[in-house]
Amino acid sequence: MTTKPFALCVNLVLFDQHGHVLVLKRSSSCKTNASKWELPGGKIEAGESFDKALEREILEETGFTVAIHTAAGTAMQETEENRIVHLVMIGTILSGGLSISKEHDECKWADIMEIQGLDKADWFDEYARIFMSGIPGPESE
Q1: Residue 111: which CATH number?
Q2: How far apart are CA 23 and CA 73, in angstroms?
Q3: Domain membership flag for residue 113
Q4: Name one Pfam family in it (predicted).
């Protein structure tokens, strides 16, 4: 039996001043999870540390420079090529203005109840079901 290799993606939970979380809707032209909602983030490039990859991905996808604070959980995704582990972190915005990349069609700041009702990427659905009810808000940092 041939098993698929693992790949690592990093994602970030970002809160606004009202405790809402930034979620992005993937473009309808994306190869995986087209038109599904997810947390910002992405793949780690060769030779890149996961924190630098996460900072780069967040800047590319949202226009924000961020500080990364703590781990917030994991989720799994399986594609045709890989088994992807999503490492989810919590961070805060340091600077920048919201400007989403071509990878995404929409963005919104959503509360936990709204996130539960979104049509989410498979990995984000798993993550939200298992971990999001326990995520501390920005006031606990």
Answers
A1: 3.90.79.10
A2: 16
A3: yes
A4: NUDIX
- Residue 141's pLDDT is what? 45
| pTM for the predicted model, two decimal places | 0.90
DSSP string, the chain: ---PPEEEEEEEEEB-TTS-EEEEEEPTT-SSSTT-EE-SEEEPPTT--HHHHHHHHHHHHHSEEEEEEEEEEEEEEE-SS-EEEEEEEEEEEEEE-----TTEEEEEEE-HHHHHHS-B-HHHHHHHHHTGGG---GGG-
Amino acid at site 106? E
- Has residue 141 been placed in a domain? no
Dist CA 102 CA 110 (whole Å): 21
Per-residue model confidence (pLDDT) at position 105: 96
Please provide the DSSP assignment of 14-50 as one string. Answer: EB-TTS-EEEEEEPTT-SSSTT-EE-SEEEPPTT--H
75 vs 86: CA distance, rounded Å? 5
> What is the per-residue pLDDT across 40-69, written as a single tens digit (0 to 9) for each?
999 999 899 999 999 999 999 999 999 999
